[in-house]
Amino acid sequence: MKKFLILLLTPLLLAACNDDEEFTPDAGAYVCSLRVTDASTGQLTLEDTGIECLLTEQPDKSISLTMKDVKFSTSPHEPSKTIVFPRLASRSEAGETTIYGIGNDGIVPEIGDLPRPDFVIEEFECTLTDDSNRLRIAFICKNTDYRLNHKAEFEGTRKLK
Asked: What are phi and psi of 150, to 5 degrees?
């Protein structure tokens, strides 16, 4: 009887331990649209599509967010750049995963593999919904040297392998 009960309960225990709704940092790449506005005036400065965003787990179990070939304006003087937000964490609840900065120093972006603390990231929001198939990122990026005060909003879907 005990063996029968164990056999009967095994599928229930396996189902209870299923982590399919939890975010896995290597959820893949996302193809995003980007909308950039001036954070003080709300004026549109750029709309773009086809931006690749990646969420990857780091050796220390933190998450990094990589946004490839990004520009914040239509200026021909602004080069496209790959921006990385290292050392992020996540929490999942009610079918949504929220990604956030770790520590008191805020998010220090890396551009060209170098930390750039002169670019201040504020109001960072990053969420995954629809079983991690939809990604939304929003933040304000400020830099007084470059007179930069942009709000960037990315919306994307998981890239199929």
From this structure: -110, 145
